[in-house]
Amino acid sequence: MKVFFQIVQSLKNFIVEIGEMSYFSIRFLKEFYKKPYEFQEFLKQCYSIGNRSLFLVSVTGFIIGLVFTLQTRPTLMEFGAVSWMPSMVSISIIREIGPIITGLICAGKIGSGIGAEIGSMRVTEQIDAMEVSGTNPFKYLVVTRILATTAMLPILVFYSDFIAIFGSYLVENLKGDVSFLQYFNQVFDNIEFSDLLPATIKTFFFGFAIGMVGCFKGYQCKSGTRGVGIAANSAVVYSSMLLFVIDFIAVLITNIFIE
Question: How many Å is the maximal CA-CA distance in the chain?
């Protein structure tokens, strides 16, 4: 019976949190259209998010390309289909592997950073001080960060895709003596608009989800410095789960309308 009540309480807390996050999202949409527009803060956040994620995204993308090609090449060799390697790797990375892996990396790096930053401002009463001074903290802190993550994640995904494909080319160049032009000509010959469009659209939703969850967890932070750690951790967990849900929905819609 005690376990049952714990499950019910956990489910109740989860539903309440979904409702609070929905209200938070609606408030974001309302504040988005209000003046003044914090354009300088938006650019600052874009630079900060892109700059602090670039190295991690580069290393991750490069390793994805190397490992994926090294693991797949022996199987293709058994069937005499090594020539399909550039097209298979590029389509797999662009459609699915690149966006979801980069999204998860950014959820860990960016989402936790936003949650901890805003959470620390909440527990040290900096947000309350901004309200007293006449500044709209929601507009300045939340709206700019959500817009920055929404704008920067597609760019990071494109960059990660290119690095991953380049890593795959290096393996093919060393193992099969394939030239740069030969490899990338085959890549671009097999990539279609239906591969790029859904992958690009869902990265905007990935960025929005990461920014929204990170800001929500930080803005609702309580319990002092301990709450900052909880906010950062839960921002990563919730945004990562949300990325998988968005990705699943995107794949379903793509299969219905495009394929």
Answer: 70
Q: Are 150 and 211 a contacting pair, CB within 8 Å?
A: yes
pTM: 0.90
Q: What is the mean pLDDT of the chain?
A: 86
Q: What is the pLDDT of residue 189?
A: 83
pLDDT digit string, tens, across residues 188-225: 888 888 888 888 999 999 999 999 999 988 888 877 77
- The contacts of residue 215 (CB under 8 Å, 6+ apart) are 24, 114, 115, 118, 141, 142, 145, 146
First to last CA, the chain: 49
pLDDT of residue 174: 84
Residue 231 CA, chain-centre distance (Å), reads 18
- What is the rounded distance in angstroms from the CA atom of residue 9 to the CA atom of residue 30? 32
Give the per-residue pLDDT at 165: 92
Q: Please tell me the distance from the alpha carbon of residue 153 to that of residue 182, in angstroms, as a whole number.
A: 30
Gap between the Cα atoms of 217 and 235, Å rounded: 6
Cα 195-197-202 angle, rounded to 5 deg: 105
Instruction: Give exposure, 216-235, as e/b (b: 16+ Cβ within 10 Å).
Output: bbbbbbeeeeebbeebbebb
Backbone angles phi, psi at 177, to 5 degrees: 55, 50
Place of tokens 């409702």: 19
